[in-house]
Every structure is written in structure tokens, then in C-alpha cells.
Design brief:
It contains six helices and three strands, in the order H-E-H-H-E-H-E-H-H. It has helices at 4-14, 24-28, 30-46, 69-77, 87-101, 127-130; strands at 18-22, 51-55, 80-82. Strands 1-2-3 form a three-stranded parallel beta sheet. It comes from Owenia fusiformis (Polychaete worm).
Length: 131
């Protein structure tokens, strides 16, 4: 019964971290642009560690006409992670993402148990979490 835009605003404001997965489809989506602008506002309000940028493909492959001034500013001022299809680099990607996310905060019974499982440095993320 709520407006989608209101739900997005509320969810972003309640999130500890905001992850933007930048792809060509993301850049063509009006809703994703709306979410990116909200995330940029949260970044200005909350500080540097609330936003995580992931590039689904190298920035050089993104059509320049799709890169908005907001995204250009984020890419120029933020560290971002780049997804890779190379098997030997995927573990490094997941380790960097886990480091960027930091430790989860306990909020009570509504937290699900998988948030608190420790993943050994040499283990990969459980498959059901990354697919």
C-alpha cells in the first residue's frame, strides 16, 4: 500500500551500509539513479563508510553517456570494488567486500543466524549467499 519511492527512502535511511552495484542496466534505470542520489545524500549526512560501490564491469567499458555527474563524482572520490570473472581473483573480491562491510551489529532476535557465522580467512563465502 505504500509508494515504492517511500519504501526505498525508508530502507536506505535504515541501512547500515548501502551497496550500489554499477552496471549498464543500473545506469539505464530511473529507479537506480534515484537510489544512487539518495545514497549520495546519505554519504554526505553519515560519512564515508556507509556507501560501497561495486563495478560489475570495468569503468572503461561503461558507456560515457550513461555516467551521470553524480556517478562521476562518486567514482572520482570513492574507493570502489570491481567484480571479476577470474576465478583466482574472486576470493580477493569477497574478502575486500567483507572488509568494507565490517562486523555486523546485533539488533536482537530479528537478525538471522547466518550474519554471525565466522568465515575462516581461507574459506569462500557460502554459495547460497553469493548466487
Amino acid at each position: 500500500g505504500s509508494y515504492l519511492s517511500d519504501i526505498i527512502v525508508e530502507c536506505i535511511s535504515k541501512s547500515n551500509k548501502i551497496i550500489l552495484v554499477i552496471s549498464q542496466n543500473f545506469l539505464r534505470s530511473g529507479w537506480c539513479k534515484f537510489e544512487m542520489n539518495l545514497a549520495r545524500g546519505e554519504l554526505a549526512t553519515r560519512g564515508r563508510d556507509c556507501l560501497i560501490l561495486i563495478l560489475k564491469e570495468p569503468v572503461e567499458l561503461l558507456p560515457k553517456e550513461l555516467i551521470s555527474p553524480t556517478l562521476r563524482s562518486l567514482l572520482d572520490t570513492r574507493v570502489y570494488l570491481e567484480w571479476t570473472e577470474e576465478e583466482d581473483r574472486k576470493l580477493l573480491f569477497w574478502r575486500k567486500l567483507r572488509d568494507a562491510l565490517g562486523n555486523p551489529r546485533f539488533r536482537g532476535e530479528e537478525d538471522t543466524p547466518f550474519l554471525y557465522q565466522n568465515i575462516d580467512e581461507n574459506e569462500e563465502m557460502p554459495q547460497n549467499l553469493i548466487e
